[in-house]
Amino acid sequence: MENGSRLKQCAQRHVRDAIQGALPLNISMKKNFTPSKPAWIGRSDPADWQVYDLARLTDPDGLHRMSVTRWSGNLQNLTNIYLRTCHPLVDSEKRAVGVMGGMPKDVHWDDLQLEAAHKIEDARTRLSFKDKDRHHRRGDFPAIAVGVSYGGGQSMPGVLRQESQNAPIIRDLMQTKALQSVAGFANCLFEAYAPRLFKSYQSTLEALEAWSPHIIRNYPNTAFAASSINFGPRTESFPHIDYRNLSWGWCAITAFGNYDHTKGGHLVLWDLKQIIEFPPGSTIIIPSAMIRHSNTPIAAHETRYSYAQYSAGGLFRFVNNGCKTDEAWLSSATRSEKAQREEDRKSRWQDGVGLLSYLHEL
């Protein structure tokens, strides 16, 4: 990934300053959320097939009565900062459960995000989408997942297959400078704000690569196993949980396009009663398998695309089984091994959340 060391230094150096701007959340990641019984993934949420606008969510006499966190998106005064308005999301136990990552110190970053939007739009006009790609539980916009996954019908971990006519278009899009730079920046944020969790993601992918030569990352150094490209042109998502992702894991979301982030395109974190302005070109990282999220609509003449990076919980389960499916592991496990597995299950969620960093550690 281009300029990886510069981006890494940029992210790590800024962590010290960003702590002062931490956004406190009135929840505990460990106590207020419950994963699925095996704990590798989240719990499936009921579908909510609608987009909520800002006025409805913030109406003081309405049902939701949420507040908006303002977040600057202007390309100004970049000389003396490393990331633009970066803020960790900190739970009631002073644990960093996510990060409003902002953007690198780069006067050309807005040009780069507009290039990403242009490349995604160009690909959208040439791709062949199935109905399930256009209409799904996340929203009514075309989306395609790329990378390594396991779950949702896959019998073994592997690289997600693309339609033959789509494969070269997706491959070229993923190799653009814009998406490579965005992926590199998100990866650096991940390592800077959650180093133990980052190492867990890296070691899981390394184990999968050792297990099969067919496991190929989207980018050589990324810790995220997969990405979803949301092709818009107005990506307006329904409230949803990405429950197949690792339950205590992180998902990096980057927005692109040309829209007024003070009026639309906000990230809504339903369980936290938080609405966050989401400027084009910015990256926000959240535990998407546990926190229900969506975004507000934009104006009809505006455009908004997004790029999400994540890892499926099934990959971690597979590696934990010694690179075996549950069925294969159970068929060869001894009684004591099965008993230990049950004990591990009971503490898995607590241990997983323990990989997150406390604010004082940063």
Lay out the secondary structure.
Layout: H1 4-18, E1 23-24, H2 29-32, H3 54-58, E2 67-69, E3 87-90, E4 96-102, H4 109-126, H5 131-134, E5 143-149, E6 158-159, H6 167-174, H7 177-193, H8 195-211, E7 226-230, E8 251-258, E9 267-269, E10 274-276, E11 283-286, E12 293-295, E13 303-310, H9 313-320, H10 326-332, H11 335-353
Parallel strand pairs: 1-3, 2-10
Antiparallel strand pairs: 3-4, 4-11, 5-6, 5-7, 7-13, 8-11, 8-13, 9-10, 9-12
What is the structure about, briefly put?
The chain is an alpha+beta fold and 362 residues long.
Largest sheet: 9 strands, mixed
Number of strands: 13
Mean pLDDT: 92
Helix and strand content put the structural class at alpha+beta
Q: How many helices in DSSP terms?
A: 11
Order of helical and strand elements: HEHHEEEHHEEHHHEEEEEEEHHH
- CATH fold annotation: Double-stranded beta-helix
Number of domains: 1
Global morphology:
globular
Tell me the β content.
15-25%
Which stretches are poorly predicted, pLDDT < 50 over at least 5 residues?
A: 73-83
Instruction: Specify the CATH class.
Output: Alpha Beta
User: What is the end-to-end distance?
Assistant: 25 Å
The rounded Rg comes to: 20 Å
Structure description:
With 362 residues, the chain is an alpha+beta fold. It has one domain: Double-stranded beta-helix. It is 34% helix and 16% strand. It contains 11 helices and 13 strands. The strands form 2 sheets. The chain has a 9-stranded mixed beta sheet with strand order 1-3-4-11-8-13-7-5-6. A 4-stranded mixed beta sheet has the order 2-10-9-12, with no helix packed on it. β5 and β6 form a beta hairpin. The longest helix has 19 residues. About 3% of the residues have low confidence.
